[in-house]
Write a structure and sequence with these properties.
Blueprint lengths: L1 E5 L2 E7 L1 H7 L4 H8 L3 H8 L9 H15 L5 H4 E4 L2
Antiparallel strand pairs: 1-2, 2-3
Length: 85
């Protein structure tokens, strides 16, 4: 969980890759192969509750890979949850 300061309030940002992968039955190995990464790297990325420091291109590539592997559209909104205070 990340905290975003917004005028005396704290908002929460959650990274939901683990839940999305579980819901769509995507393994670390399958996603790693699709992205050209090591399954251990996917495991580390997946186990974050906080939004990892990744760029827009990487986020887009993760979404495209999940869409391809699950035949169900994936958007950044599926992977990131913002909860205002």
């Amino acid at each position: 969980m990340s905290a975003v300061l917004c005028r005396w309030r704290v908002a929460k940002v959650f990274w939901k890759l683990r839940a999305v992968m579980a819901d769509r039955k995507i393994t670390n190995k399958a996603l790693a192969e699709e992205l050209g990464m090591n399954p251990v790297s996917i495991s580390k990325l997946k186990n974050n509750e906080q939004l990892p420091e990744i760029g827009g291109e990487a986020l887009g590539n993760i979404c495209l890979a999940i869409t391809k592997l699950s035949s169900k559209d994936c958007t950044p909104e599926d992977l990131i949850e913002y909860i205002p205070d």
